[in-house]
Design brief:
Number of domains: 3
Distance between the termini: 91 Å
Helix content: 40-55%
CATH architecture of the largest domain: 3-Layer(aba) Sandwich
CATH class of the largest domain: Alpha Beta
Strand content: 15-25%
Shape: elongated
Number of helices: 8
Structural class: alpha/beta
Largest sheet: 5 strands, parallel
């Protein structure tokens, strides 16, 4: 009868790397907020070069995530829903679309058991700034921002970054934030093609003037919808002249438009 061979695990470099990886993961998990590489080096005693290599591997394999400020957060950490508070600054309650977005977020949060702190930006940059400060003071875990004025986007983003509050923005881009919206250029292109086909089918392509309603304060990225719309129109009606196109500032509101 043969004796079973005893498995011996050698103390190799791979084993040491695993130990260090576990130390880094536990150090990241322990922190309530995103943590910097220098802080991890100080906490674990692992050299900066080694810690960086291990973190890069963990990042590639989805074990950790990195913020725009190059801080690390755990991916596998599970937080009880009752401990999650999300601040949502809604664009306005003036528009049906804005109300639909708010209702959708509130409904999803209720299903997930997540607390939502809801504020209304009232389509005002001043109110949006005040709301951002209020959400910071409320110590929410995440801010979802739906405000239209691109001139204050950097200020809102920087204030939240200073306090290590992650930011998701809707429709209007903000620096170093997760951007949630449609492909603006493609949306405009689709609309322009549709308008062109409608004009071809109903007016035999004879158009006196094209009126486009813009929203300059939203910035260049949402403005690319108009560029896409013109490209789509010209794709269907190649003889369209620049002199036939008028762009007006509708301010995103029905009465102004």
């Amino acid at each position: 009868m043969k004796r079973a061979k005893k498995t011996v695990v050698p103390r190799s470099q791979d084993t040491e790397s695993m130990v260090k990886a576990c130390q880094l993961l536990m150090a990241i998990e322990k922190e309530a907020r995103p943590v910097r590489l220098t802080d991890l080096v100080r906490t674990t005693g692992i050299s900066k070069a080694t810690a960086f290599r291990i973190l890069w591997t963990l990042l590639r394999h989805g074990m950790v995530s990195r913020t725009p400020l190059n801080e690390y957060v755990p991916v596998l950490r599970r937080i009880a829903p009752r401990n999650i508070r999300i601040g949502y600054a809604a664009q306005t309650d003036e528009f049906a679309f804005s109300r639909d977005v708010t209702e959708g977020i509130l409904a999803a949060a209720q299903v997930a058991g997540i607390e939502i702190l809801l504020l209304n930006n009232a389509y005002s940059p001043l109110v949006a700034l005040q709301n951002a400060e209020a959400l910071i003071e409320a110590e929410v875990n995440l801010v979802m921002e739906f405000q239209t004025d691109s001139s204050i986007a950097a200020l809102i983003s920087s204030r939240l970054q200073e306090r290590h509050v992650p930011l998701i923005v809707i429709e209007i881009p903000h620096p170093n934030a997760v951007y949630f919206w449609a492909n603006n250029s493609q949306a405009g292109l689709t609309a322009g093609r549709y308008l062109g086909r409608w004009a071809e089918g109903n007016w035999k392509g004879k158009v006196d003037e094209i009126v486009l309603l813009g929203l300059p304060m939203a910035g260049s990225l949402p403005g690319s919808r108009l560029t896409g719309a013109l490209l789509g129109l010209r794709e269907i009606m190649p003889t369209l002249q620049d002199s036939q196109v008028t762009v007006l500032n509708g301010n995103g509101q029905f009465q102004a438009s």
